[in-house]
Amino acid sequence: MHLTLETAQALKAFCAEHSIDKIVVNRRATSGQGAGGAGTFLIEGVLLATSPVPLVFFHSATVAATERKESALKTHRPSTADLGKAYDLAFEGLN
Prior knowledge:
Elements: H1 5-17, E1 23-26, H2 38-50, E2 55-58, H3 60-70, H4 81-94
Parallel strand pairs: 1-2
């Protein structure tokens, strides 16, 4: 992965153009399958180093707990796995 000055500037410009005040990120797994993967570690580091807005991390257990407690509020949650995960993280970021 190459982090260039242009990439960091593009992230900063995107956040400014779209009035983004925080980025919500799925916390990396620390145990179990896929834990400690180098790719996710690098991406997290790049975001921490270049993000012009605060990063907010949520653990998958937090997302699951919210799903149990607040599922009635998630009436428009997409059924596909990737969009569903993005929706769940966005929902966490609103709280």
